[in-house]
Design brief:
It is built from 23 helices and 28 strands. It has 735 residues and is of the alpha/beta class. Helix 2 packs across helix 3. The relative contact order is 0.10.
């Protein structure tokens, strides 16, 4: 290993499995010795490279990098924001690695700068420098270079476009062509933003933006943007659009300069992780969707009706084979099914589909063919399905591809020699970060534990707990299905400056954000507190499919063997979400969960890399393995374990129970009176019993409940007595 590369340990001594030894007593009975066990440990490492190991260096490249670094520093000076030496060096090294001639064109360079490190500011600084060199024409060696910039959020791209235009004006003043061109894709705000002309469209369907599907298409930017974009050196697009184009990205490589000469956009910069795993779910609903699409074909004329019938007949044959395959593996929870066919949809079927339906559901047809030709993973979930396996080929000939991803070093999707990591000096201690962990089983916030149908009370309890315990800016995040309920209990209001809970600005009504909706966002950067209600955990089938796609040799996986389904079902045996014989899938799951959680934590004020204010994170019943990973990602952070159950949860667990009559039972009425209605004035215990029809036996039982003890403690209820002998009276009072 030369001086330009080094092995970087991301996670050290991660114990992913422990087995305790089973021993026997003298009488032959078995027992587990807690101190006698075997453990399996590994380090998680990546190979990081200095710029001179990635590109060929020269003075022009260094000057470009210095110019970008100066612009980067200038942006932070204008904001009066501090920069660390590591951030400054990052802006220089990233520029060297991007603008230079790469040594290994088939490699994808990953730049793992942490969230808040200044990635967006850097990308803008790089674009601004590139535009300046393009403007110089023959005076710069970089004047003919172009770039494609990809990011998750379309708002960020619009901001890039606006800022570059304000700084540089038009690239071609005569034709009013900008330096950057925004390649639009449909989203829920497209009509409001003036992009989509069809107000009736409320959700995206593949292929809908076409003359065949939309009557407004000819007057929409979607129809002409492919032809307009070639006159701008920088092309901006969303990750969703980039994923959709896939191999067709070659069509956007060319741009035409002011002199009419064709040039090349050789640089692809992807901000945030793109889709790497290439799996696809195939179930009965998919076939229903395909049949519906065929049924919607306009059948004017006998030929169209005949072709429609042919398509339905052919699809029905494939569906019959699908159902037969599904039945053959129905007894297994998971197993591998190898492909057995050479073709699935014949050329005539494909030709008619393209002519009458277009590109809609082409990915589904490809996946079905992959199921029968290559094979797939069988998943006998509540709704059974097959998952095709694979990874996307990110090698685009003639392009240099760079991915900015803060959690890429821990993310198992990057565990492949195709990716190389730029060495970033982003080490930081997190003594200011404290994780508060609720350990009691009653504080379980899994999807099922938070089910509005079964445990509606828990949604109310967590909201009451938040309202009673927090006052400063707080970032609250939970499951998509729960944010509406929790937000209602939090009594959120739009445009309320006194409100301490930070809202999801992308929603039409006041809501807390949900998992998967905050990636790359800095809307919550003022939060000093974070409360994660639940865990962004996918079903075990998803982790298994992704792990096999990334880690396994798929040629061997799908190689036909005797009793393959039975043997692989045993190998992939699952118990309560953990795989008993396939450790890689468990490690993959824990790493992915840690990655998702780390991204959520970086939504808070620690997003400011130079900040050292205290940040408190509250989490419920986490996996010990995930916490092990997190403790090493946030070095020197603190952990506080909480074994108790907050009173709000104790109360709502009782109050949330439904009686057959729909009315409150004795204990529910008693708690409401004790907590809310009683003004604290002296009242005899006999009177309380009489009011609530509580027997002497039940009185002792009710008063022994922890929730009653907690309410009495909070309200400072005192038990006193007056009189003597037969005239003695026991009473309660709040002093």
């Amino acid at each position: 290993m030369d001086g330009g590369a080094k092995q970087k340990t991301i996670i050290e001594d991660f114990e992913y499995k422990r087995e305790y030894k089973e021993l026997k007593h003298a009488d032959g009975t078995k027992y587990i010795d807690g101190g006698n066990f075997s453990s399996w440990i590994r380090n998680i490492e990546v190979l990081t490279l200095k710029p001179n190991h990635i590109v060929k260096m020269n003075d022009d490249i260094k000057a470009f990098a210095q110019e970008t670094q100066d612009k980067f520093k200038e942006l932070f000076d204008v904001r009066n924001s501090k920069l660390t030496d590591g951030q400054v060096k990052f802006s220089y090294d990233a520029s060297l690695s991007i603008i230079g001639e790469v040594k290994n064109p088939d490699k994808i360079t990953v730049i793992p700068a942490k969230a808040g490190f200044g990635k967006s500011s850097y990308i803008y600084s790089f674009m601004r420098t590139l535009c300046n060199h393009i403007n110089k024409g023959d005076l710069s060696k970089f004047a003919t270079k172009g770039a494609i910039i990809v990011t998750d959020k379309i708002e960020v791209l619009r901001e890039f476009e606006k800022d570059i235009f304000e700084d540089m004006g038009y690239y071609n003043e005569k034709n009013k062509t900008k330096y950057s061109y925004m390649l639009e894709s449909w989203n829920k705000n497209s009509f409001k933003d003036g992009i989509c002309k069809n107000e009736a469209v409320t959700s995206y369907e593949y292929g809908m933006c076409s003359s065949k599907e939309c009557p407004f298409y000819k007057n929409c930017k979607m129809s002409y943007q492919k032809f307009q974009q070639i006159y701008s050196p920088i092309l901006l697009m969303t990750n969703a659009r980039f994923k959709q184009y896939g191999d067709q990205i070659e069509e956007y490589k060319k741009w035409v300069d002011k002199a009419g000469k064709e040039q090349v956009r050789e640089i692809i910069i992807i901000d945030e992780k793109p889709a790497i795993i290439d799996d696809f779910r195939i179930d009965t609903q998919l076939f229903s969707d395909l049949k519906k699409t065929i049924e919607e074909i306009d059948t004017n004329g006998d030929e169209a009706r005949n072709i429609k019938e042919q398509l339905l007949v052919e699809l029905h044959k494939v569906e019959t084979d699908f159902l037969r395959l599904r039945q053959s593996v129905a007894t297994y929870r998971n197993c591998i099914c190898s492909g057995s066919k050479g073709t699935v949809f014949n050329e005539e079927f494909r030709k008619h589909w393209k002519n009458y339906i277009g590109f809609k559901h082409q990915d589904a047809l490809d996946a079905i063919e992959k199921l029968f030709i290559q094979g797939a993973l069988w998943c006998n979930a509540n709704t059974p399905f097959f998952k095709t396996l694979g990874v996307k080929d990110f090698y685009y000939p003639g392009f240099k591809t760079y991915i900015f991803d803060a959690t890429s070093e821990l993310d198992p999707d990057y565990d492949n020699e195709r990716f190389q990591f730029l060495d970033i000096e982003d080490y930081k201690n997190y003594e200011n970060v404290t994780f508060h962990i609720f350990k009691n089983e009653a504080m379980n916030m899994s999807k099922s534990a938070m089910s509005a149908k079964k445990h509606y009370w828990k949604n109310k309890a967590v909201a009451e707990w938040i309202l009673n315990n927090f006052r400063e800016k707080t970032y609250v995040v939970s499951y998509k299905n729960n944010v509406d309920i929790i937000s209602n209990f939090l009594k959120l209001k739009a445009n309320d400056e006194k409100q301490f809970i930070i809202l999801d600005k992308g929603e039409e009504k006041p809501l807390i954000p949900h998992f998967g909706d905050t990636k790359g966002s800095n809307e919550f950067k003022d939060a000093k507190y974070m409360i994660q209600i639940g865990w962004n955990r996918a079903p075990s089938d998803e982790y298994l499919a992704q792990c096999l796609s990334r880690k396994a040799n798929l040629n061997k996986v799908f190689e036909k063997r005797e009793n393959q389904e039975e043997k692989t079902a045993s190998l992939l045996e699952n118990d309560r979400g953990l795989f008993l014989n396939y450790d890689e899938a468990n490690i993959y799951m824990w790493r992915k969960m840690a990655v998702e959680f780390e991204q959520e934590v970086f939504r808070t004020s620690i997003r400011d890399f130079s900040a050292d204010n205290a940040v408190d994170i509250y989490i419920f019943k986490p996996s010990k393995k995930v916490i092990n990973l997190i403790s090493q990602r946030f070095r020197k952070c603190k952990f506080i374990e909480i074994n108790g159950v907050p009173i709000e949860f104790q109360e709502q667990k009782v109050l949330g129970r439904k009686t057959p009559s729909g009315e409150d039972n004795i204990i529910q009425r008693f708690i409401k009176w004790l907590r809310d209605d009683w003004d604290g004035s002296q009242i005899s215990i006999n009177e309380i019993k009489s009011n609530f029809k509580i027997s002497d036996k039940n009185w002792e039982k009710i008063n022994s409940k922890q929730v009653i003890k907690e309410i009495k403690k909070v309200r400072n209820v005192k038990r006193k007595r007056s009189g003597k002998g037969a005239n003695q009276v026991n009473y309660w009072i709040i002093e």
